Amino acid sequence: MRIAIVDESAARASIIEEGLSELADCDLVVITERRGMLARMAEIDPDIVLMNLGNPSRDMLEEYFAVSRALARPIAMFVDEADDEAIVASVEAGVSSYVVDGLAAGRIRPILDLAITRFNAFARLQSDLAEARGKLAERELVDKAKRILMQSKGLPEPKAYAELRKAAMDQGKRIVNIAEAVVTAHELMSGT
Known about the structure:
By secondary structure, this protein is of the alpha/beta class. It has 2 domains: 2-103, Response regulator (Rossmann fold), CATH 3.40.50; 131-190, Orthogonal Bundle (Arc Repressor Mutant, subunit A), CATH 1.10.10.10. It is built from 7 helices and 5 strands; from the N terminus they run βαβαβαβαβααα. It has helices at 10-19, 37-44, 58-70, 84-92, 105-153, 157-171, 175-190, and strands at residues 2-6, 27-31, 48-54, 75-79, 97-100. A 5-stranded parallel sheet has the order 2-1-3-4-5, with helices on both faces. It is elongated, with a radius of gyration of 26 Å. The model has no long low-confidence stretch (mean pLDDT 87).
């Protein structure tokens, strides 16, 4: 596992390194420079990112949130003081763990595990949502094709669906592909 530790202070970064010293097969990369961080992250391609920001300014937080949004990785962010707006913004930016005043070597591993677990859970939710949206879009397309067949051929809904299903079986395609062809043909023929 490759872990990127982001901290402008090498001394503070060493606390995180100490907390991760017991991990086997772990490649730690410390980044102390803010300039060019996104390019550096792309080059490193970490599995997880631990950011220790101390007491960041709003501009500094925005920079790190931009990095968070661009990375599809678990991210744990350590700060010295609580800030409700920053917490909300960090969650929206994809930060898995936002830890206030919690930088201690003994806490690093559980926080790392939490960040990974939360990231994976959120990724599953996003995947499930994308799948549900895809199925809904397919259903809407099939319904639109049924309406076209019902209007153009004067068919009742079950017959229109049966025609779509039969065409799909005859052509060895999914019903949604046939529905898409019906809708496209209708749009071409009607000029809409």
